[in-house]
Amino acid sequence: MSTLLKFILKFTPSCDRRLIDQISPLIRTRSIVKNDFLLNAGKTCKKLCFITSGICYKYLADHKGDNVVQFYDQGNLAGDYCSFVCQEPSRYHIKTLEEVEVQELHYNDISLLYESSPVFERIARRMTEYYLCRMTDRLFSFQHDSPEMRYLNLQRERPALLQQVPQYLIASYLGITPVGLSKIRSRISNNRHVAGANSGDLTVMSHLI
Fold it and tell me: Where would a tag sit more exposed on the chain, N or C end, judged by fewer CB atoms within 10 A?
């Protein structure tokens, strides 16, 4: 069973053998080299790509530069969902940071699955709801959290990204400058150092009492 198929079946409480047999032949696997594109702005998103290895990022290019809106690493679906659903040109680029392997489903195949399988239609609804909630959480964070809190949340939820992704892209994703990110990291590091030192002082005092 493909990795993409396992991901899809996580959104249903039971394993439907007929659905598995329907989807399996439709999944295609391909590799994309480093610094290449899964999607270019102005092109319509025709495929939903499941990342099986590697990492890529989605960004909006304008006169101010590249504004990163999402990172996709192993175990994530990559694409422009609005472009995919409406079959209209995307505003976004999706670019690889390293060689990426994906498993894909084409728009036409998914449309046929909607018509032939009520089970798949329910799965797709649940997947859409899941990703809509994630998008809403990110929007809420930008409206209510400080940049430092957004960094701490990213550090807690997706720590591998901080090791795999250049810092200027992390800064763009957080909505700050690289200098601002450097200051946040320095401040967090200093606070932890002070907290550790204070903890050590308390330990010494406990032995003296």
Answer: C
The values of phi and psi at residue 104, to 5°, are -125, 150
Q: How many CA atoms lie within 13 A of 106 on its CB side?
A: 8
Sequence-distant (≥ 6) Cβ neighbours of residue 110 within 8 angstroms: 48, 124
Interval 93-115: pLDDT, tens: 999 999 999 999 999 999 999 99
CATH for 43: 2.60.120.10
**Tens-place pLDDT, residues 124-179:** 888 889 888 988 998 898 889 999 999 999 999 999 999 999 999 999 999 999 99
Same domain, yes or no: 116 and 72: yes
* Spatial separation of the C-alpha atoms in residues 90 and 102, rounded to whole Å: 20
3-class state of residue 59 by DSSP: strand
Q: For residue 91, report the phi and psi dihedrals to the nearest 5 degrees.
A: -90, -10
> What total number of domains does the chain contain?
2
Task: Calculate the alpha carbon distances from 66 to 100, 143, 149, 165 in Å.
Answer: 21, 20, 22, 15
What's the domain range around 112? 3-144
Query: Whole-model pTM?
Result: 0.85
